[in-house]
Every structure is written in C-alpha cells, then in structure tokens.
Amino acid sequence: MIWEVFRQERKGQPFVHGGSFHAPDQAFADAYAREFYARRQESVALWVVPREAITAIEEFPDEFDLKYRRVDGYSIKARLKEARERAGTAAD
Amino acid sequence: MNAQVRPRTELLLELADDELILGWRNSEWTGIAPFLEEDVAFSSIAQNEIGHARALYDLAAEELGTDADALAFDRKPEEYRCAPLVQLQLVPDWARTIARHVLYEAADAIRIERLKEHEDAEIAGIAAKIEREEVYHRLHAEMWLERLRGEDRYTAAVDELWPYALGVLAPELRPALAEQVGREQVDAVERSAPGPEFAELWEEMTMVRRSAPVGAQW
User: Fold this and answer.
1) How close, in Å, is residue A66 to chain B by CA atoms?
2) Per-residue pLDDT tens over the stretch A9-44
3) Which residue of A has its CA nearest to B46?
4) ipTM for the assembly
5) Domain boundary assignment for chain A
6) What is the pTM of this model?
7) Which residue of A has its CA nearest to B147?
8) Protein fold of A2-53
9) Bridge partners of A45?
C-alpha cells in the first residue's frame, strides 16, 4: 500500500507534498512518516494519506479553443489610458 | 576506573550501557532490514537510543570527571554493565529482533516511569526527556507486535528472550513486567561480566576510537 505525505514546515503555511512510501497499514504509515519527514524537526505537522484516497484529475478538454476564458493575452494598457483620459485623471 | 563508583553513577551507567548497546545492535540492521521503509525507521530508532545513552553518559561523566565518549568507548569490555538482553547478536533474525524490541521497550517503560519519580532532579529530568521519545519507540514495537503476535517464530523468540527481559530490571520491578507482558516470572538472566559475543561487538565499536590519537576531535 502506498502512502503520500504532505508536510507543513511552519504553522500557518500550506502543506506541501513531501514524498511517498510503502506501508502495510495506518500504524506503520504514521510511524514511517514521523521518521522520514519529522525526525529532524523539519515539519510541524504531517498529513499521511493512502494514495487510493486521492482523486487525481488530469484531463481538461478545451476542444473549442475558448481563448477568451483565459486571463493571459489581454493588454489593458491602451484601454486603461483611454479610460483615464475620459475620466480626466492622469497615470500615477 | 575507580571500582568504588557511587550508586547514582552505577544506575546511570547501567541505563546508558543498555541504550548504547541496544542502539548498536539494532543499527546492525541498517541496509539489510526486511524492507526499505523499516530500514530507515529502525535505524532512526537505533540512533535515538544512542542519543539517550549519550545524555546519560554526560550525567555520569560529570561525577566521574571524564566525558561521554570516554565512558562509551574507553572502558574495558568487562566494565560495561549492560543487560545480557541487549548484547545478543540477532541479525539476521527479524522475529527475535522484534521480540527483543517489544520486551525491551516494555521493561524500559517501567524503569523510566520509576526514574521520573527519582529524588535526584537531574535523573528525573532526563527520564522525562527520554520518555517523550520512547513513546514512539513503543508505538513502533507495538505495531510489529500486532503483526507478528501468534506466529510460531515470534512466540518462540519471546519464550527464549523472556528470562533475558526480566534481567533488564531490578528485581522489585520484575512483577510489573510480568503483568505487562502477561507471562509468569521465571529466573532472570542477570547482569554479569559480558561474554564473547559482547567482546566482538566491543572490538568493532571501539575500533575507530582506539585507532585515533588521544585527544582527537571529531
């Protein structure tokens, strides 16, 4: 059985994937997670998750090339300038 | 070394020697444990035990006017006070190794619990610190116990090692261990002058220290 470990380096920080290992059950997984990811005080908390419990979503079709949904590619500089002129306010 | 060591030092050295030698024996699995994850975890626990030994040697060293390394490595084999249980060379038998681990942790828990109440604040303090790490060693031992309990090889190993486990504790603490483990108290294998198996361990353990010039820094 494969387990995934997420570790938090400091309180309040997001948990980041640390790695994975084999363990037969939760008790072994907890013990190994502790020894592998926290024995040098490098983590303040761990999430130990059976890989099976993780749903991986990997396909995101975009068949019709809906570029307008993306936030990149727009230049707002010119439009911002126009808007400022209309409002009579100068750029900073 | 002075033969007239005070009982406090005697107690510290007994404990420290147990932890050092068990740590050493368990570290013999490094690289060849049954699977990779266990290899790392068991080696880490072995290092913890040696860390406990160091803290205990430090305390004893203050009284004896020496240092932890000298106590760990400069004594003659016959001066070590470790229990016969920790001296046994059990590689490559994992069932016996786990049986020793389970029995030692059970005995050690009883001993440490008692030491936390010790009148000497330094000893009580160090016992409390050791206990905070031993909790996880016990969890590790218990998870293996749950897996191996009832297996013939494991049962035979506990049968064999039970008299040794009793010998880790002072006689007045042995009934508590018998109750904890659920076994009848039998004649214990007592602490005595270490045998040839220990002499071999000592040769290897002290080899680097003996080969280095006196006063070498690490």
Assistant:
1) 47
2) 999 999 999 999 999 999 999 999 999 999 889 999
3) A35
4) 0.83
5) 2-53
6) 0.87
7) A24
8) Ubiquitin-like (UB roll) (3.10.20)
9) A8
